[in-house]
Amino acid sequence: MDRDDVCEIEHVNEKAVQEVKSNMFDDQTILKIANISKILGDATRVKILFALSQKELCVCDLASLLGMSQSAISHQLRLLRNTNLVKFRREGKVVYYSLSDEHVIKLIEIGAAHAQE
Amino acid sequence: MDRDDVCEIEHVNEKAVQEVKSNMFDDQTILKIANISKILGDATRVKILFALSQKELCVCDLASLLGMSQSAISHQLRLLRNTNLVKFRREGKVVYYSLSDEHVIKLIEIGAAHAQE
DNA sequence: TGAATATTTGATTAATTGTTCATATGGACA
DNA sequence: TGTCCATATGAACAATTAATCAAATATTCA
Questions:
Q1: Is residue B1 part of a domain?
Q2: Is residue B6 part of a domain?
Q3: How many domains does chain B have?
Q4: Which of A39, A40, B9, B55 has its CA 20 to 30 A from that of A106?
């Protein structure tokens, strides 16, 4: 699309637009904000992260806790691993997961505060 | 699926699971957390919300600022309206949008802090 | 009223996503 | 080695989603 034609130029508040633009986060930061939000945009993942914020748990614990298949949990954990939100350690056959990012809990808390309204 | 069969019962740390479960947010709260996160899970919407946190802007301003079609912006604004994250006022032909939820900015700020790593 | 302009809306389409099922991997232990 | 069990992974499928295009509203102004 042609961004000069979004509307008649006289109607754009050019000064305000430029001012906001100069304060805007760079695209990479915006993308990272969107990406971590995307992670929290699924109830299963929110539950997993909240659970792990309280206790280190194995895949099996999480599956039991959430009443979901071990495969579904494992898929979600992979996502959380790939985005460095959780870490894990192996103990025999069992793999224990725990949080590796403190921001996530703040985000969940603010989301919860937002929910109470 | 059968949640009793996710794994051998003896291997679930039942006590830990129960403890976490008792502290877990209720499903409705979890859903609201996920839903507001979903909103922030898109770069266009993050930009819109961040822009509106600084200045009241019209649809046309936002389209110009983001270099996107006015229709695309309008669709996103509808979403933000429906979730009560923005409010608007009409002035003649022009509709001005502004933020109506303070939590959103905190979420974006924490997301940005997370991005700086 | 009719023309012009800002915005909204509905339908469509391509892309993304979360779960399921089946199968693979990896460690423990006989 | 072979079996068991916890976990991981790949393919497939349904559902959701964001942009585009075309068309509808709403407001101003001549």
A1: no
A2: no
A3: 1
A4: B55
A108 touches chain B (CB under 8 A): yes
Give me the residue label for tokens 């079609």: B69
Question: Residue holding tokens 């961040």?
Answer: B50
Residue B17's domain is classified under what CATH number?
1.10.10.10
**Within a domain: residue B56?**
yes
* Chain B nearest C-alpha distance from A74 (Å): 12
**Residue among A75, B54, A55 nearest A65 (CA):** A55
Query: pLDDT digit string (tens) for B50-92?
Result: 999 999 999 999 999 999 999 999 999 999 999 999 999 999 9
Å from A112 to nearest chain B CA?
A: 6
